[in-house]
Specification:
By secondary structure, the chain is mainly alpha-helical. Helices cover 74% and strands 2% of the residues. Helix 3 (54-79) runs antiparallel to helix 11 (224-250). The longest helix is centred in the first third of the chain and has 34 residues, at 14-47.
Length: 335
Amino acid sequence: MSAEPAVPRHMPVVGSVTSRMSVVSVIQRSASMVVLVVVLAIGAIAFGGNFASAQNLQNIAVAASFLAVVSAGMTFVIISGGIDLSVGSMLALGAVLAAWSSQWGSVPAIVVPLVVCTAQGVVHGLLIGRRGLPPFIVTLAGLLFARGLAFYVSDDGNTTHLIRSGMNVSWLGQGKILGIGVPLVIAAVVFALGGIALNRTRYGQAVYAVGGAEEAAKLAGVRVANIRVRLYAVSGLLAGLAGLLVAARSSSGLSTIGNGLELEAIAAVVIGGTLLSGGSGSLTGTLAGVLLLEVIQNLINQVGTLSSYYQQVVSGVFLIVVVVVQAYLSRREAR
């Protein structure tokens, strides 16, 4: 019998390489969740019942629900290799249009902001997907347009449109289902449907393919332009929905809200493990990133002596650390 050829010592074993790649992938997906659990534990130890009470945790979840809805759409966009800088302004536009339209009833208050913000998202998608314009420039222009329209509807910000008490639309922001705030329920539904679309459908596979290798996706028959139109339409829809929820909760629509929200959404998505270069990410990680930002803000409020600007500092540090770690893990995976 002939002896089996020995494996040269300098050659990597396929099984070990696969194992290392799977470990890297797991770290990218679950690191934000681990950090969230650690921060929650630290908060419970440091502040006891003031932080760990069921009421406070529910307050955190409800406060996070508005950013979560916006971040869900941002996750899809970033996985595809794009970016959407207009979501903060579109949230403000959605809130202003919801309050303004409420003078004609609850149905217009719901329909108008969703239709207008979705339409603007479609325009973004057409310019990016079919005309090949850079997402950064298109959505930056969209940011200015949406904010300008919000100020126009609110008479240069001098008029604050109000939602009358007792209107059905107010239930979307102030109501409860089985003791849980409606905004939180809506955010949970958005993430559930988004998770199914991203992980269980051909559309989700196409989103990952476009973000990972757009030219290869085109050769495989993926209609990249159509994918991008849908992505930005959904992002606009969810930003408008978040604005509607904010207006319903506060019974008003302010044209000045949502400043910097697009950066918070991007930070939450990236902290959650989604690569800015596209092709990798998950809604579970984004949810952990959103909750982490809100928990940090709540802990700062618990201290009482710290300015809210500390939350931005801590979020920036988290973001830098995450991006550095992602770059390191990506190089390890490439090797």
